[in-house]
What does this fold into?
Amino acid sequence: MKIRLSFRLNGNPIELETDAERRVVDLLREDFGFTGTKEACGSGECGACTILVEGESRLACLMRVGQLEGRSVLTIEGLSDGKHLHPVQQAFVEAGAVQCGFCTPGLILGTIDLLRRNPRPDREEIREGLSGNLCRCTGFQKIVDAVEKVVSSPAEGSDPCPVG
Amino acid sequence: MPESLEALWPALEEPDTMVYAGGTDVLVRLRSGSGQPQQLICLERLRELQGIEDHGDRVLIKAGTSHARILDDPIIQTRLPVLARAVKSLGSPPIRNMGTIGGNICSASPAGDTLPPLYVLQAEVALRSRTADRRLPIGDFIKGPGQTAIRPDEILTGIWIPKNPEFNRQHYEKVGQRKALAISIVSLAALIELTPAGMIEDIRLAWGSVGPTVVTAPEVEAVLRGRPLRLEVLKEAAEATRRAVSPIDDIRATADYRREVAGNLLYRLSLRVETSPEILPR
It folds into this structure.
């Protein structure tokens, strides 16, 4: 069944017609080329497909396209202004929290949701906040370090928790 | 994707229709090949299914309320900590943003994290069809793994929970393979009325993942009632628990391990409850 959709994607208004049965992860990757939204487990266990919908982290592999109607969506591609990295991205780079990079978009968007709920999490709260994201090569220590870096020296000027 | 119940009823009358809310369970099951219904209706936009209401002696959690909203709610945190702790152990932050309490109940998994607390709290589910409303105790609603008493023309609209259970301690613990995203191997919810001298005046217990549905065991509660909350008493109750549960072997654990843990979780009552300064307000 075809449906018409209108929503905001990384700040831009989108209107399109597509199959209602499609998943959000496929729409983002295939129709928009936003391959930062990764698919790994396909069942909500790894967090690689994390996106922000109205600022809340959601799993694009477990959403049908109709669920985007009227909403604001942010993917990793919409996070920086194209010139400067978002402070969370910058902190991941500086802390060495990126190795192969496959899980990184999900972890960064998960971090933004965590900081929206709790702007000053301690290390335990960071671990809990990112518990839905699996990384199999960087190791979680540096990822926690990166988030701690953002918390201890918040950058001025950029929106710490953009909605999209 | 209907936005009101009025718009839902005609869609529900179509043949081969299935409803879902958060999708964290249903979409995984459909993808793993358990058939595709002709029509899949998403309930997440139904205004009537959103929110938590304080009705004096009871709390109504509407079925489409996400686990994240439940965790953030001050009434749930202060009056129903047994439920808050269970929801905190459910899935992961994005799963809790998406999944709903109504979905967790209707999935009717023996491992459903919200179910043991809802059993000990003696919650009632509210069901609605185009023409009628009815309520059922949670234990009568859930019939078996994935089986409920819901009719094809009905949806679950909410869950009524007594806000002031006559118990001053609430406890929940889950054993899983990892901290996040783990389906429980065994879980235990407990309500206890403990006297200042440490006597168990009354107790309600419910275990998850050790039978086809949540297991309650009046014989275990009887062992504990009227006796001090001490390790030797709990040991006796743990033995009774191991006789009461009927776990299975699966990829997560063996039946023997589950039986052992179901009993062991009772020991923790002595650690977690006796030393806890927390006494719930009446």
In short: The mean pLDDT of chain A is 94.
